Amino acid sequence: MGFMLNGEWKSKDYTHSEKGEFKRDATTFRNRVQNGGQFEPESDRYHLYISWACPWASRAVIMRELKGLQEVIGLSVVDPYMGKDGWWFSENPGCIPDKVNGAQLLREIYLLADPEFTGRVTVPVFWDKKEETIVNNESKEIMRFFDTEFNHLAERNITFYPDGYRQQIDETIEKIYQPINNGVYRAGFAETQQAYDEAVAELFEELDYWESILADQRYLCGPVLTEADWCMFTTLYRFDAVYYLHFKCNLRHLSDYPNLHNYLLELYQLPGISSVCNMDHVKQHYYRSHPFLNPKQIVPAGPELDFEAKHNRDDLPGGPPEALFE
Ligand SMILES: N[C@@H](CCC(=O)N[C@@H](CS)C(=O)NCC(=O)O)C(=O)O
After folding, report:
1. Cβ(126) – ligand 1 distance below 6 Å
2. Which residues of the chain fall short of a pLDDT of 70?
3. Distance (Å) from CA 22 to ligand 1 centroid
4. Mind telling me the catalytic residues?
5. Looking at the chain, which terminus has fewer C-beta neighbours within 10 angstroms, N or C?
6. Dihedrals phi, psi of 9, to nearest 5 degrees
7. Is the pTM of this model over 0.90?
8. What is the C-alpha to C-alpha distance for residues 207 and 175, in angstroms, rounded to an integer?
9. Sign of the C-alpha dihedral, residues 225, 230, 232, 238?
10. Whose CA is nearest to atom 5 of ligand 1?
11. Contact indicator for 80, 106 with CB cutoff of 8 Å
């Protein structure tokens, strides 16, 4: 693992507090896409760099798929194995090399944007071909741009940030971030027993909470499918295959939660979603890229998961927007 210091690649572990708690570094590029701004929503102007393995990057590529922006925004996919040079491009199955900048390593993209860049080299990256720079590398903001700023270019007339729900969506994304989305990492990358114990307790407390909410509510914010659900989805999808074992989030399997599990199946089975989920990349990445957790880098064979199994969520009021099926 490494990071850039004034444009130089240095080997560096993740950041931890004195108590051994994992601390995620702040995101570095935070420009906005907006009409009338420096970064106007335009066709064939932007490119998205992702990893199929990464739950954050998956938020962005899911929204690109749901909105029907595949012809408008290009895509590159890094190799699932993140070694000492960080993310890199390959011709391995499921990967899409960088045809825009011809980079071999993702960090080259960061250096093109800022030759003196200091920070972690993370996915997703939203690249502007016109200004030749990184617009933004914060997943929830990229997801929001795709959802709200590209409507005139999107194939589907659909939104996951509807009026009347916006405050609740923002609050829910915030509410699940520390205990769940980042919580699995806080458990997995904890450097002390206490830091791990606290992260795991918070994680399962929050999962228990949503399990009870989803008993009679179809989605996190009510009967309407929103961005908050997609933020939840990318963590739940990886839970039993990776977080349960590799990150020791093993009080319960996700599949032990009937409501969360059925909710996960429903979201996975919506049009286009399985095409942007790649469990092989997920497992290859996590089990091979953290030798401090899994020194022999052996990728476990299981668990056997059936994301196509029938779900029971149609019993509840609400449902996905009809435009999704057109
Ligand atoms: N704040 C970022 C976090 C992205 C992130 O941490 N991505 C991970 C992959 S799951 C990464 O690229 N890590 C590489 C590193 O930290 O060196 C977001 O939500 O977009």
Report:
1. no
2. none
3. 13
4. 54, 185
5. C
6. -80, 125
7. yes
8. 12
9. positive
10. 122
11. no
Domain ranges for the chain, please list them.
2-153, 166-325
Atom nearest to 138 CA in ligand 1: 20
Indicate the SS3 state at residue 249: coil
Tell me if 85 sits within 8 A of 110, measured CB to CB.
Answer: no
Q: Which CATH architecture has domain 166-325?
A: Up-down Bundle (1.20)
| pLDDT for the residue numbered 24 | 87
Q: Is the CB of 120 under 6 A from ligand 1?
A: yes
Is 128 a pocket residue for ligand 1 (Cβ < 6 Å)? no
236 burial via Cβ count (<10 Å: 0-12, 13-18, 19+): buried
Closest ligand 1 atom to Cα of 24: 6
How many angstroms separate the Cα of 47 from the Cα of each of 119, 136, 146? Answer: 21, 11, 12
Q: How many residues does the chain have?
A: 326
The pLDDT tens digits for 188-232 are 999 999 999 999 999 999 999 999 999 999 999 999 999 999 999
Residue-wise pLDDT for 165-187, tens only, equals 999 999 999 999 999 999 999 99
Calpha distance 123→87 (Å, rounded)? 8
Fold of 2-153: Glutaredoxin (3.40.30)
Contact predicate 15/23, CB 8 Å:
yes
Whether 27 lines ligand 1, by a CB cut-off of 6 Å, is yes
Whose tokens are 């199994």? That residue is 309
Per-residue pLDDT, 11: 85
Question: Tell me, what's the pLDDT at 326?
Answer: 87
Q: Which residue lies with its CA nearest to atom 10 of ligand 1?
A: 54
Between CA 170 and CA 300 the distance in angstroms is: 36
